[in-house]
Amino acid sequence: MGLELVEFIMAVEEEFEINIPDDSASDIITIQDVVIFVDSLTPEALNQADIRFKILNILNSDFKLFNLRGDEKLKDILSD
User: Fold this and answer.
1) pLDDT at 45
2) Contact between residue 60 and residue 66 where contact means Cβ atoms under 8 Å apart
3) Helix (H, G, I), strand (E, B), or coil: what is residue 73?
4) Is the pTM for the entire model greater than 0.85?
5) Which of 1, 12, 15 is nearest to 73 (CA)?
């Protein structure tokens, strides 16, 4: 797992106040996978659209990645 991907996972953990174990992080392939995983760990008050918005905001603000659809592979868009 590359440094930017680790930084992204850490940013997601901080944003949602969750812990993503290393073995789970290695199973996360796309942005949508992150949304689904976070959704499984967060309260029902937060829906997938809200989670997706926050994740895309992390990618926009921290990594300067824009116009993402959600099916992109994280290893392709987050490189060292």
Assistant:
1) 78
2) yes
3) strand
4) yes
5) 1
